[in-house]
Amino acid sequence: MSKKVLFIGLDGATFDVLDPLMEAGIMPRLQRFIGEGVRGLLETTIPPITPTAWVSWMTGKNPGKHGVFEFLLRRKGSGAMPDQPVSAHSRDGLAFWDILGRMGKQAIVTNVPCTYPPIPLNGVMISDFLTPRGRRDFAFPAGLIDEIESKFGPYQLYITEVYAKGKVNAILNQLFDELDYKTKVNRYLMNEYGWDVFATHYWGTDRFQHELWHLLDESHPFFDKKEHDANIGRINEYWNTVDSTVGGLLDEVGESATVYLGSDHGFGPIKKFLCFNVWLIEQGLLVLKRDAMTRFKRALFRIGLTPDLAYRSAMKLGLAHLRLSVGVTNRSTLMKLGNLLMLSLEDVDWTRTAAYSKGNYGQVFINLRGREANGIVEPGAECEKVIGQVIEKLKALKDPETGERLIGPVWRREDLYTGPHSPESPDVQFLPSDMTHKPLGTLDLTSNKFITPVYGNSGDHRMHGIMLGRGPDIRRGVDVEGARIIDYAPTILHTFGVEVPSDMDGRVLEEIFTEDFMIRNPVRISDALSGADSEKVGSITDEESEEIRERLRGWGYLG
After folding, report:
1. Cβ proximity of 185 and 197 under 8 Å
2. I need a labelling partner for 5 at 20 to 30 A (CA). Which of 279, 308, 505, 553 fits?
3. What are the extents of the domains in the chain?
């Protein structure tokens, strides 16, 4: 019998949520699965975000090699303005299913982030939620979506419901629908198409925690006991259905298959936002224009006319749903109108600005001459001096409430990344010492204060997701230590006894395999494999790029 490997991705899954649910008997299949195999924390990427993490998972490479650092990728010379949304064509390097395909192995890949447009493979693929709305080219081979929709109805790519008081059931209804629809499709593909490796992604576990974390966490400022009591039964039912979904896929593949479960990052509460462009203005590193319009907008900014105020007001009026439902054209128009009155990076005087923040979880770029559209900082000694200033100031930051250091680890790009795309990464990257504080950078100047109470999403990402595995060659009862998301690709290759390309940064998690399997299959390293440039099918238009950016803002991924 040929070997089969199934990977189930539960986006954002964390043992902080799963362990109590298992102990309460709500997720018995997952508990049994763990007892029959291995488990461990899975360290994610810096930054700990969906596209960077999943591309690192599929390639086994650090972002400096694969080139995906954020949801929006910088174009050379584009400066701080919005850039191209990430897509499959943003990725350098072969996914593990491409490597297996070269060896005759067939793959089925469904809903994995950063797979739109689907790049032809030895098998079938359905792309992810970054597909532009209205596109019909999100599956390979052509015609697959028509086949699926004839059996199961319109394909459910997107989750659109967001939290507001009284809307918990609407969110949960959509999350239940995602589980049901995608599992029907997965089981259909498993039985109708040949496969050796099957990789699938469920997004709802991530969206649940972004929107509804506060319903599980009494310490959260949004926690309301009445709301918790009214919804906890259905919340537990959702996680029990996640458990049944996993169990159904396990039953489908049987005991002979090797099954891995993993998440791209963990999760936890967020309670404060940090607007680092405000901080950079306070430090004199980011300077605003002195023209009359900017001075007028700055006066309004000082009295609180900010995107923060606009969104909080919308929430109080019960209009939070507008962040996803007003439509791209209207949202884009509103954003442009907002920029006429609200400060943004369009109001920056780049001839006097040394640094700016753009991106999630703590990213600072130097306004470097020759790289930025209007760069003024000379490469070399002057750039190093500015980087040193930024790092020194970050390390000196104190939490005004506790007096403790506000910022935890701080890295220069060379500390984190190697490879040809490293120059595209932030010059300085950092994480807060308390991850309940989330640095915002993509919405330019969200608030007129550096530190503000959270609004919108109540949960956000953490540095450790989950790693689980079970199979005939997998040990039982092993706690895995030091696993990283880049280790999954080489480990899956090794499960098939395939050589690991030398340019993968991840390692084979040898400790999860039985001694007998490792004796018969020692780790073997091959030369690096190059991927020929794929045909640029499914290129995204400027209008579609804007539509994706608006959806990302609505989901809370852009601040």
Report:
1. no
2. 505
3. 5-70+83-269+462-550, 272-460
Helix (H, G, I), strand (E, B) or coil at 453: strand
In the numeric block, the tokens 């504080």 are attached to 437
258-262 and 5-10: which strand pairing? Answer: parallel
Half-sphere exposure of 332 (CA within 13 A, CB side): 14
By CB atoms closer than 10 A (0-12, 13-18, 19+), residue 186 is buried
Model confidence at 316: pLDDT above 80: no
Q: Compute how many other C-beta atoms are within 10 angstroms of the C-beta atom of residue 146.
A: 10
pLDDT beyond 60 at 332? no
Right CATH for 5-70+83-269+462-550 from 2.60.40.1730, 3.40.50.920, 3.40.720.10, 3.40.50.1110: 3.40.720.10
Measured CA to CA, the distance from residue 163 to residue 311 in angstroms comes to 13
3-class DSSP state for residue 383? Answer: helix
Paired residues of 363 in beta bridges: 429
Write the DSSP string, 384-397.
HHHHHHHHHHHHH-
Q: The tokens 């050379």 sit on which residue?
A: 76
CA 495 from centroid of its chain's CA atoms: 26
Three-class DSSP category at 470: strand
Using the structure block, give the residue that is written with the tokens 């007129």: 448
Contact 47, 361 (CB under 8 A): yes
Residues 309, 300 contacting (CB under 8 angstroms): no
DSSP-derived secondary structure for 501-532: ETT--S---GGGB-HHHHHHS---EE-----P
**Any idea how long the chain is?**
559
Helix, strand or coil for residue 102? helix
Structure pTM?
Answer: 0.92
Mean pLDDT of the chain: 90
Q: Mean pLDDT throughout 505-510?
A: 98
